[in-house]
Give the backbone structure.
Amino acid sequence: MTPEKHKKLYKRHLRAAFIRSGVSLAMWTVGVGAFFVGALKAHSLIGISISVIYLILINPPTLIVLKKIAQERTYEKFSLLINLLEIIGYTSVIYFCGDIEATYLTLIYAALITYVGVVAPQKHSFIIASFCATIYCLMFVLIRTGLIPHISQVPYSSFTLVNQILIILVVIGFLYVVAYISATSANILKQHKEKLKQQNVELTDANKKLKHEIQQRIQTEVALRESEERLARSEKMKALGLLAGGVAHDLNNVLSGIVSYPDLLLMDIPEESPLKEPILTIKESGKKAATIVQDLLTLARRGVTTTEVLNFNDIVSDYLRSPEHKIFLNYHPEVIIETNLAAELPHIQGSAVHIKKTVMNLISNAAEALPQGGKIIVSTENQYIDRPIQGYDHVYEGEYVVVKVKDNGTGIAPDDLKRIFEPFYTKKVMGRSGTGLGMTVVWGTVQDHNGYINVESTQGKGTTFELYFPLTREENVQQKNTKTIEDYRGNNESILVIDDVKEQREIAAKILKKLNYNVATVSSGEDAVNYMKSNFPDLLVLDMIMDPGIDGLETYKRIVKLHPGQKAIIVSGFAETELVKEAQRLGAGEYIQKPYMMDKIGKIIKVELNK
């Protein structure tokens, strides 16, 4: 028997004990009243009192025994024994009230049978009825045989033997009828109770199912709304990206003169010329402008042109030692930056320029949230991700390098949190903190590196940015570039420059001639194909985007039909695209992003020619 069932049965018997005691005291009270009105003799009152005391005293020991019984069958048998003892007590009360003359008190038997029928198994009603009939008949036999005296309370009444036997038979029949009615009624009640219980279970299950369906519907609606919002933001970013990409392409063409011509001028002037420093300044300014173009290309999510094995700890440390960080400290002297960089952090594959810019933007963003000063904590760790990340429907399971930038600043309002990665959405000090592209660059960089980003912010407590980058098991090989411009000079190899912009062709031609190459130029893909019908250059410098006419990919396809295995490098004002990758699959070599820089184009051409 389980502890729960034992506890339930014990509580039932405890309640029965209180009822038994209450009924006994009630009978004694009635007996006392009958004695005072002369309806009951003194010796009968004494007998009734002893019987009531007996009925009350059987409760404590039987309850103690019941509490210790653990077997269900034993518990059931002992319960019947208690009922038997109880019937003996009630029979003695009937005896002292006038035995056969007090037959009306057999209603106590009926009450007991009814109670047992309600709380006990169905067969117990008939067992109790049998006990009652047996004890009652035994009392009659003992009186008729003279073993116990007849106690008459009504002297003028007399019953013949036949009458007494008829009374006993009527009582026995009455007891079994009560047992039957009690058992049947109890069975019907139990069936209805079980039916109600089953219906209650079904209703509870239906209610749970309904609640689950409602929750699922709410979650689905929330997920759908979030997906629609993400799609709308994605479409907006895509549209802005196309705009930014087009602007960046045009700016790269314009910047070519500013970035490329200083190299040519520096080669033509003496080392001690007073023009050297201004020319270098022009060159550096052009590079800074090119960096802004990189931000625009990142906004277009087409900005990662080169990847290498990187260690985030090195990138963070290099930034904290950089001139940019010193400028940052001048603007934010009250801000304290702490680092918690994991030892033996795995590497990632990515663009050092973009990753460093991401770190710089996140630290700058955190500092803006600390107008009265505060603390920024930059930490790195290695995590295995097998759970969803907020804001993403799917996350690829695996190991990631996780970078966290945490501040204890003002926090970000929930409405602003939804828009922080939108281009030009900023609450920073314009002119000092940027143009509103900083967080967009962070978002674009993470996307381009197949990573994820999570932002948690509480107003008045601070913000934490978590960036997840897939790690790589490749080793980081540090290579120092000790080559000079002389190392990139050619040996009079022939090169064909194909570009639709006149200024770009001229800049490329002048740089390549300075590097000792024989250079020819054409302004379209069609002219390039015609040129290749009668010429055999060693290398092509091929612009990928040309208008009007065929683009760089189609141009290269037609040329390799004329000259299978023709060497080529690809240049463009855009970042690397699928067109570039397809051309490389056809045999084209490295990709260079405009504007042209002498060391960069010289190195790649040298590598391609030596293949």
